[in-house]
Amino acid sequence: TVAHDFGVARGAFLFLASFVLSFGLVKGALNLVAGGLADRFGRKPVLLAGWLVAIPIPLLIYFAPNWWWIVAANA
């Protein structure tokens, strides 16, 4: 399992919470920033820039050496 591969104890709430919390906080903050940028430059350029930034994320998650890399890549 993924938990075993990364040495995460079964039922470790902290690890799940860190994953969800990092995603939620960063997503909320970047939505505010993206809204301002979209007002200034238009929606399409902001969406394209976001997609370009997001392209390597699955690779970072796939090749993550430990759980905290996954949390960081998710953020």
TrEMBL record:
Keywords: Membrane, Transmembrane, Transmembrane helix. InterPro entries: MFS, MFS_dom, MFS_trans_sf, Sugar_transporter_CS. This is Major facilitator superfamily MFS_1. Pfam families: MFS_1. GO terms for cellular component: membrane. It is a multi-pass membrane protein. Residues 1-75 form the Major facilitator superfamily (MFS) profile domain. It comes from mine drainage metagenome.
